[in-house]
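Teaching assistant here, posting this on the class forum so everyone can see the example we discussed in section. The complex has two components, and the goal was to see what a joint structure prediction looks like when all of them are supplied at once.
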Amino acid sequence: MDTFLAALFSGTSRGAIYALVALGLVIVWRGAGVVNFAQMGQAMFSTYIASALIQNGNSYWVGFFVALFAGSILGALLDILIMRPLSNKKKTELLSSESMRAAVPVIASLGILGALQALAGIIWAAEERGFPAPAPQEGFSVASSIMPFTSFDLFVISIVAATLVMTTLFFKRTGVGLAMRATALNQEVARLSGIRTNFTRALSWAISGAASSLAGLLITPTSNLSPNTLDLVLIIGFTAAVVGGLDSPAGAVLGGFILGLVISFVTFYLSPEDVFISILGVLLVVLIVKPRGILGGKDARRV
Amino acid sequence: MLEINSLTTSFGSVVALDGVSMSVQESKITTVIGANGAGKSTLLRTISGLEHPAKGSITWDGKSIIGWKPEDVVRAGIAHVPEGHAVISELSVEENINMGSLFRRRVNKKDVAAALEETYHLFPRLQERRKQLAGTLSGGERQMLAISRALVSRPKLLLLDEPSLGLAPLVVEQIIDCVNTLCRSTGLTVLLVEQNANTALGVADHGVLLALGKVVADRPAAELKADSSLRAAYLGY
């Protein structure tokens, strides 16, 4: 029973982080039409900023909030300085097909990932370093029995839950949120309604940057920090987004939790070596049964 | 009010608009009629900034709006309701309407609420369905919704692209009546593009006949309606 609970809690807290990563990917995919492979590179970079601040004697929370802020600024800058010029119709006219044009920003994102990793290596040296957690990572004890979860797990689950609620309220209840949803669903109608889609696109990059930076801050206490440590998180987060439906923010969150739990239960009951084959298994089953993801793409759109 | 001069828009080697010149008078309904592929939609899309013309000028309120982004054209008072009941199916009816007034929220919050009430007054059916997803509406209701979204931006000029497309005659009549009433009672200027020439000319003050991207006739609507030889040559009835 204890093993089960431990797997459940560790899976939920891991899943919460994957949910953030997947959500970040979905926000940029819907808001800007780009699968952003640089996302965890951006997260890695802002986590390094937090790490540097904390090492220089600042409190954890200073590092934490500066990293979130830096993550959103970096996201917006990448869109404005690199992605926007690349999506300019006139400049990509030479490319013959629509699909080739759509590939340009994706390839650019891979380039950005490489550049960010190299830059982090140059500035902070490419060796692994630890990253602090704001809460203890040992199972805490209640009435002299040790609980199967840590205070850090609780911290992760609650902060991610709060983030998801805030994001949902932002998208559903505010005018800017409506503008962003409209842009994601139909750019032409959005523009004809007077919505500045350049702004909403940059904003989706910024929000995604902050969400993935949060994921970086929450995962590095258990995985350590190096320029490449978050690559794996991106792969799992991307799988989560595809499993849940790349079109659906709720699906991304669901996919994140599913993968977190699968990984955790496989690690606890089978062996860590079976993790990848089981992720692949989940992906295959979902793609065969529902090719557009669990909550993705309703056919109602094609009325 | 709107002056268009030798406007040419092409897609690759296909010339959709070939030196079109026309003007739209304030508080009047001007209609552009013509067969499929005459360039009617391209004309509206070029005015609203969705397509970029190769040559020519568009002057709105004394200013050239060539090269403006669609979002700036709306903000300058030209609202475009594109072909095919353009609403966002995944958003609710009220969200679709509110979309059109987002840019005015900070400037005049009271008027945004008033504009919403006015459209509900104009199309009571939309108020009944305000919480429903736009994708669940009928074709006619969607067209009303698309028009409402344009109206809450408080346009001076409304560009309507084939509002009758795919709708039952009774619904078409209702929508055209609404637009007509709106124009006569509030002084809204309308540029109506239609394939359904009879309906359009019946309500318009002025008519422009477009064929293969060129203006072949530019006259008062009643005159155009009476000219059976033009109709036979260009509209096929």
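For the discussion questions: The first strand of chain B starts at residue 2 and ends at 11. Chain B has one domain: 2-235. Think about how each of these relates to the inputs above.
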